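Following up on my earlier thread - several people asked me to post the actual chain instead of describing it. Fair enough. Here it is, all 397 residues.
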Amino acid sequence: MDDVLSIDTLAAVAAVSLLAALVVGLFPRLPVPQVVLLLAGGILIGPHALDLGAAADVRVLADVGLGFVFLLAGYELDLRLFRQDAGRRALLAWSVSLVLALGVVGALEAAGMVRDFLPVALGLTTTALGTLLPVLREKGLLGGPLGRYLLATGGVGELLPVLAIAVFLGTQGRIAALVSLGTVALLAVGLGVLRRGVHEGGRLAGVIAAGQNETAQITLRGTVVLLVTLIALTDQFHLDAVLGAFLAGVVLRWWVGGEAPLLESKLDAVGYGFFVPIFFVSSGMGLDLPQIAESPLRLVLFFVLMLAVRGGPALLVYRGVLPSRQRVQTALVSATALPVLVALTEIGLRSGTMLPENAAALVGAGVLTVLLLPALVVALDRRPEAATQAPAPQAPG
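Reply from S.P.:
Thanks for posting it. Predicted structure:
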């Protein structure tokens, strides 16, 4: 890679990461998820405010952070969900969103507002499951029936748009994208064969078992090698690597089996402790504020379309299985988007298929969804009926 890491910018990014965690810890009732503070901090130290550095100064680490976002999202996703009602409804909701997006963006194209029909349409169908995971975990929203529906709708909203983008818009072309998918499939088969050999015993199994919790940290190092290799293969961070990271997370969860919770805690420490915050702070630093200021109504339009196109179908699809408040929460989760939009606009700008004003407005709308919608999901989780319910009378002693 040609990118050069600036240690001064990294120091500022690390400071923002620490301060965001401290603010969340000191003010636990603050209805703002940590990712919002990371984005806001990135804007503050970026070239349009304090000018302490630029996103390009930490691009290498931010790319690894984006890879961790998708790896952890894929790792969290349980494929068995798609054999259940939650998975089937999630697929239906996304299909409705895709139809709506194609129709709405077609009308915008006819009106001359967009010329990048497919990228914008797919951008309106994405969900930032990896971005939302820390918030949903911290607030205990992943348990129970609601958690299954949130994970399913988030997984579909992250995987299917990335798959479509890789095939139809990938910088390497459709054939290369299909080869990339085939490579990931072969990787899954190879890991399956390796898993069978390791779990059957022998010296290798003993070495892995003995080294996974010692200074060697074999399973964690192997995961990092897998992720960084996927990124390095693209030379620059294209959507093929994003898709590979997501699918690698799915495969990895299946491969580790009973050791999944142990490895998960280690991945959380490395990902959420270092790399993921760098990605979000870098995203804030790279936000094109002057371009957004020139056409603010375009940003508002895309924000409203994300709510209507991606969140709207959830209000109907989950009717009968979730109460109204949880349907609204599911709709808000569905409409939250950012990482895929960042990668999508980068590809669109690089290939010349996306207008700069549309790219800035899409990313800005994605940032706005991350700033507002998770906070609304958390606010709605404060169950007033539970708080006002009278305590049961105690039996006499």
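Residues 114 and 306 are 16 Å apart (CA to CA). That should answer part of your original question.
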